[in-house]
């Protein structure tokens, strides 16, 4: 007989799944008493119902068909080339961006590393090739005031330069010693 556990969302909805599948989450494992062998329900107080339902769907599927590890450096330069299993690609492709971000945060909170890796990869894939303004809008980052932008341009010149958008400037050479 398979042991079943209930995960309870922030709003009190409960989702049943095999205990072994739920144990992919370190939070679930850590919530269980060590000695009596009983399985306690676990409140996942920071995760809303719709998101927890998706997490449970992931955990159940992963238990039956584990996702191939996402290794770095990435094996390909696109999402489909890295995530070869169709179910996992579809799992994060067919959802809206806000739920994707909620999944990422839930995976982080619940310590579900494969889901965190998958969600992070999907987010990075969506950001690839976007302008800074498009990224700002996608990530819901407020627009900087003129004063904040001036400060950022002064303190982080390398970000705004055309020389190398990904690397900080080389360290300045020390000033020559005075002669004399």
Automatic annotation (TrEMBL):
Residues 166-180 have a biased composition (Pro residues). Signal peptide: none annotated. SUPFAM superfamilies: POZ domain, Skp1 dimerisation domain-like. SMART domains: Skp1 (SM00512). Residues 113-159 form the SKP1 component dimerisation domain. The keyword Cell wall biogenesis/degradation does not apply. Residues 4-64 form the SKP1 component POZ domain. Pathway: Protein modification; protein ubiquitination. It comes from the Eukaryota. Keywords: Ubl conjugation pathway. The keyword Translocase does not apply. Pfam families: Skp1, Skp1_POZ. Residues 159-180 are annotated as: Disordered. Belongs to the SKP1 family. This is SKP1-like protein.
């Amino acid at each position: 007989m398979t042991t079943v556990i209930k995960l309870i969302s922030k709003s009190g909805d409960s989702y049943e799944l095999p205990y072994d599948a739920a144990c992919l989450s370190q939070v679930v494992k850590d919530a269980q008493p060590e000695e009596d062998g009983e399985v306690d329900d676990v409140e996942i107080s920071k995760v809303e119902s719709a998101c927890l339902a998706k997490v449970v769907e992931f955990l159940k599927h992963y238990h039956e068909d584990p996702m191939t590890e996402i290794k770095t450096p990435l094996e390909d330069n696109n999402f489909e080339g890295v995530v070869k299993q169709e179910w996992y690609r579809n799992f994060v492709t067919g959802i809206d961006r806000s739920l994707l971000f909620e999944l990422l945060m839930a995976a982080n909170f619940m310590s579900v590393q494969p889901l965190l890796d998958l969600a992070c990869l999907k987010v990075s894939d969506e950001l690839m090739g976007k302008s800074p303004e498009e990224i700002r809008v996608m990530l819901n980052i407020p627009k900087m005031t003129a004063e904040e932008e001036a400060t950022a341009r002064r303190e982080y010149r390398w970000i705004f330069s055309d020389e190398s958008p990904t690397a900080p400037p080389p360290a300045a050479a020390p000033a020559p010693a005075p002669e004399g």
